[in-house]
Amino acid sequence: MPALRRKVNEREPSLAIQGHPTGPTGPLEKRCTVTQADNNSHILSGLTDNILDKDPEETSEWIESFDQLVEAHGTERAQYIMRSLLQRAGAKSVGVPMVTTSDYVNTIPADQEPEYPGDEQLERRYRAIMRWNAAVMVQRAQRPEISVGGHISSFAGLATLYEVGQNHFFRGKDHPGGGDQVFFQGHSSPGNYARAYLEGRLTEEDLDGFRQEKSKEGHALSSYPHPRLMKDFWQFPTVSMGLGPMNAIYQAQFNRYLQNRGIKDTSEQHVWAFLGDGEMDEPESRGLLQLAANDKLDNLTFVVNCNLQRLDGPVRGNGKIVQELEAFFRGAGWHVIKVLWGREWDPLLAKDDSGELVRIMNETLDGDYQTYKAESGAFVREHFFGRSEVTKEMVADMSDEDIWNLRRGGHDYRKVYAAYKAAMDFKGKPTVILAQTIKGYGLGSSFEGRNATHQMKKLTVEDLKQFRDRMRIPVSDEQLEGDLYDIPYYHPGPDSPEIKYMLERRKELGGSLPLRQEPSTKVHLPSDDAYKQAKKGSGKQMAATTMAFVRLLKDLMRDKEFGQRIVPIVPDESRTFGMDAFFPTAKIYNPAGQNYLSVDRDLFLSYKESPQGQLLHPGINEAGATAAFTAAGTSYATHGEPMIPFYVFYSMFGFQRTGDSFWAAADQLARGFIIGATAGRTTLAGEGLQHMDGHSPVLAGTNPAVRHYDPAYGYEIAHIIKHGLWEMYGDHDGDHDFMYYLTVYNEPLPQPAEPEDLDVEGVIKGLYHLKAAEIDGPRAQLFASGVGVPWALEAQEILAKDWSVSADVWSVTSWNELRREAKEAEHYNFLHPNEEPKVPFITERLANVEGPIVATSDMATLLPDQIRQYVPNDWATLGADDFGFSDTRAAARRYFKIDSHSMVVRTLQLLAKRGEVSKDAPAQAIEKYRLLDVNAGTSGVPGGDA
Ligand SMILES: Cc1ncc(C[n+]2csc(CCOP(=O)(O)OP(=O)(O)O)c2C)c(N)n1
Ligand SMILES: [Mg+2]
């Protein structure tokens, strides 16, 4: 008989484990915590399922015993016992599936809460004032002639979550450890502004500039956290749901990376991310949790504001978002802390010997929880406590008001403090705090918990009065009854006890947050030596531009002073790009090092992981790689340590897949290099529709912070990168905040040495004269970019040989930059009609250039067409529109009509139209080169990895 076997008709004493998912639980003080189970049973550690049954008889007794339990007490009771046993097994390090959810109660029992270290009364006083000012700011911005909107309810609900952090945890930049990094929830920005106002960082005039960024310039506040628009205030853009969680994870990883590489001591810097429960439905919010667990990022805390609502309505009306997130995060290896109930519930839970209260808490759906707080105490009595005689009795002595005042945990300073402290103290895992709150808390009955509350921006006189009374703001009825859009802000004055206390707290913690700074750390840019090799070309060897880039990167990394600042980032394609050469020397970053015997350890280019590794390898994970790029590319501001990311990836999976992250990176003023390797719609040869990128430069062109280049040769790449580094980190008065996007290819082609008289300005501005015609004849101009250039050179020869046409070849290094500059000139001329008009660079360069232009690239025609209006010459574009496909490069180019012979025919057509060659020449050429036959194409070299 198993030792633990008991008669099933005896009443079981509670197994006393806090955190079982359903069924009755014992009183709080009898439950033991799950901390140890939390530590040991982790889905990542794997399970053994092939253990032999050594004692079948004993096993069957256990099973029989269980069957009797089900029969006597039903499935619910059996479920409780089973889960409790599983949980206990986890605590005893017995390998069984972990229990992923716990009861719908606070993870930290009341008797284990630490003392609250602050003056709660004072803290609540200025929290109330912040709530008032934040709402008034939005209200004033709703003045009919302005009506620029804003959110009131989200901050009202999460004020406590911010304030406990601001008063006791978030370290500012003056802290000796360097300060924390806090990702504030985007649409709760009114709360940050309201605090900054009380702290004396913003004035009333500033608050009145909310969302009027141009019309109130100098006193404008951006709608959401936009560092680009408020460079001295916001650090992290968060409002595009899902990007904040990703970026926070990679920020925490990057902090550790800097630490491990010996660049900066970040051991005292913590990353906090405030997220919405609705936001957690974004795949980006959940998709990268594993990295944080694998890297043991205990320098990271997520706080999910579980108001159970998103914009339209409940997040999980029919379910429980907190429970779902608990299971999800725990399964991903995170430490989970739930803060669900305020202190007023503690005595009730302590009395809950039968477990009925916890049962009801467990069983109540989110949709109902939301409704309770939009109703009344009487309603809660009837619909919540009234569901069981025991619980009804429990609150019999309480008034409806007392019941109404039973708070949710996320509004209780003590409960939130306990959770934050536990998160900071916990080692070995990242922590998520799931805090239950009410959306629109304190705003009165027309806001609290209403489905429409997210979008509500205006308070009525009645709302305002109710709100004023609850917040105890000294504003008279008359002031509220006048102009509804002239409701006064309230500041108790810098010498009031609450403000003095508040400022003192921040001073002690290292100054105000959020705060963005750009410490002026000088970067020693690489010496000219680093670029020497790239300018030499590849001699007789054929080399793809991807390879030319990688060689240059290697040379830059060798630079004594500068090299260590480079952060190469590759999502699992290093071998494709020839970057496996970095493995043995630069090594792949892994905080755990390499604890296994590497299969290729004897090879020269063996896979090498190290805590000091320089290469960030996020796995097959472009989203994470872009987040890593963002963290590295903003390190100059976040850490005062300029680091230069070179993020290398399949170009198709860049701007198309992670465009929004690049947009956020631009908002965050990231600097660095984005390398779209294996670019082009014909160049990848065998990879097909989903890989052949002909449009990323067009997408990149829509991001104002991105300079795109489509270089043809290694020496062009050298000049572009050199210029890029100077633009980002050189000593000049211009804008430094750019990301350079280079498309490079994998087609092995001759890499010539840099011409002696290279027009470097042209390379940077987007176009230079590469090769003059060698004969006299009708004049034409061949423009080409990237991998199109060598074929334009071939077309030049064919035009001369077969048609006596004198064509020049131009390498267009950047269609986008040519357009950008031309647009700027055009805009200037528009606004300065009486001044000497500016001539765009492209127009000026072509002033004396004769003949029609045929512009070709491996990309969509939209790319070259951008500059057409600035070019006086006749013009034709050849490009690769439509989906890509797999074939040989020669066949694909012939199909799209972007090969040398297509360039020849198109040139002849333009010349024929001008009467400079015979009218029949184009048709003859089509015939001669069998232009309609894809098998007759010859413009393409086989080989090159993909
Ligand atoms: C990617 C993206 N989609 C949609 C939105 C619009 N939006 C802003 S806030 C919001 C609701 C947020 O709900 P939740 O995350 O629960 O935050 P809460 O306000 O409830 O704290 C939505 C849909 C957005 N900002 N980003
Ligand atoms: Mg929500």
UniProtKB/TrEMBL annotation:
Transmembrane segments: none annotated. GO terms for molecular function: pyruvate dehydrogenase (acetyl-transferring) activity. It catalyses: N(6)-[(R)-lipoyl]-L-lysyl-[protein] + pyruvate + H(+) = N(6)-[(R)-S(8)-acetyldihydrolipoyl]-L-lysyl-[protein] + CO2. Its cofactor is thiamine diphosphate. Residues 766-899 form the Transketolase-like C-terminal domain. The keyword Transmembrane does not apply. Its EC number is 1.2.4.1. Pfam families: PDH_E1_M, Transketolase_C_1, Transketolase_N. Residues 1-28 are annotated as: Disordered. Residues 529-748 form the Pyruvate dehydrogenase E1 component middle domain. SUPFAM superfamilies: Thiamin diphosphate-binding fold (THDP-binding), TK C-terminal domain-like. Residues 182-340 form the Transketolase N-terminal domain. The keyword Oxidoreductase applies. It is an enzyme of class 1 (oxidoreductase). Keywords: Oxidoreductase, Pyruvate, Thiamine pyrophosphate. InterPro entries: PDC_E1_N (IPR035807), PDH/Transketolase (IPR051157), PDH_E1 (IPR004660), PDH_E1_M (IPR041621), THDP-binding (IPR029061), Transketo_C/PFOR_II (IPR009014), Transketolase-like_C_2 (IPR055152), Transketolase_N (IPR005474). Component of the pyruvate dehydrogenase (PDH) complex, that catalyzes the overall conversion of pyruvate to acetyl-CoA and CO(2). NCBIfam families: aceE (TIGR00759). This is Pyruvate dehydrogenase E1 component. It comes from Micrococcoides hystricis. The gene is aceE.
